[in-house]
Amino acid sequence: MSDPTPVPRVIATESAARLIAELQAEHGPLLFHQSGGCCDGSSPMCFAQGDFLVGDQDVLLGEIAGAPFYIGRPQFAVWRHTQLIIDVVPGRGGMFSLENGRAVRFHTRSRLFNDAESAQLAAAEPQSGAQDPGWTVLPTRS
């Protein structure tokens, strides 16, 4: 009996997937980064691949619509128990995010993983940044 595939740590709504496809058509391959910096932490930033340098403090959560999605390690430590749901809402995107100027922006929603999902995910921690191809096991919340 094979283990079920773990629930994805990040997913996109249909409206987010449509906007990602539009941006990919204009800019080529994309990547996303969710930071916990001083700016609105609910707005992931969308970049053309190569326009944002992924570092060893960034964690690869997965892909949405073919675009890798990274989060800062300190932010992952706080949000590790949630699935990120990338959506599109009215408003202005981040100054450097590719959706800026479209009257919509990407927005991060979340939901808590249930116990079964958490158990699956405990065995497969996400990959850390570009410099470290191995898996990074972060301490669990107490």
Automatic annotation (TrEMBL):
<dbReference type="InterPro" id="IPR008497">
    <property type="entry name" value="DUF779"/>
</dbReference>
<feature type="region of interest" description="Disordered">
    <location>
        <begin position="122"/>
        <end position="142"/>
    </location>
</feature>
<dbReference type="Pfam" id="PF05610">
    <property type="entry name" value="DUF779"/>
</dbReference>
<protein>
    <submittedName>
        <fullName>Acetaldehyde dehydrogenase</fullName>
    </submittedName>
</protein>
